[in-house]
Amino acid sequence: MIYNLNKFNLENLYFSFIGISGLIILAVMLIYLPPTGFMYNFQKPLLFLIFIIICIMGMVAAISPTKCIGLLKIKKHIQEVNSVDKKSDKKEFMGHHPDCDNFKNHTYTLMGKKYCAGCSGLFTGSLIAVIGIIIYYFHGMPVSNPNMIFDIGFLFVLTGLLQSFLLNIPSNTGKFIFNLILVVGAFLMLIGIAEITGSIFIQLYFLLLVFIWIMARISNSEKKHGDICEKCSEGSYCDYR
């Protein structure tokens, strides 16, 4: 089989635990660490630029699934099994999902083409975040209560991570929404952090967490895809496996 379920379970547990615990630690640091009044001139634009780059990379991965982590392993495996005699018809890939009924809740069809619901949510959330940051930086936003902005973002991110870790949403709409709020939540947290503290350490720690949240989401997605194939009745007759 292509999937090593024990490996995926360990990776999923690791990234989910680090992502959620890191989120809680970040909130605790903002509460108990004294605010840093001094801020370098380059600090805020650099913070926003790095976050925008992360969002753009996520958008590229969403619209070009062949760049997603894990897909190259899958496609390599498919090429290998397709080079030998098989007992079944070749499975085609729609985005980074095989054209299989077991994955129908992971995709939606628009103008005759299939798209990944989760990646579409990440793309939309990233686009909202990039536009929001640009508007905030150049024109400003009414942020009268940055702590509340941070708290809303915290709840959004926590909900997205817990959903990914604990629940299997059987709806493509649900997958779209939860991936969207994960990115929008990170954007709101970024605005809150930029207003609350000038600590370079906290800001860099937040950017590291964003990367970990992405890895947690990817690892969890791989695990769930592996679980679907593990339970599939086609067994070894399926090229995807």
UniProtKB/TrEMBL annotation:
GO molecular function, one term: endonuclease activity
Keywords of the record: Endonuclease, Hydrolase, Membrane, Nuclease, Transmembrane, Transmembrane helix
N-terminal signal peptide: none
Membrane-spanning intervals of the chain: 12-33, 45-66, 115-137, 149-169, 176-194, 200-216
Identification of the protein by name: Restriction endonuclease
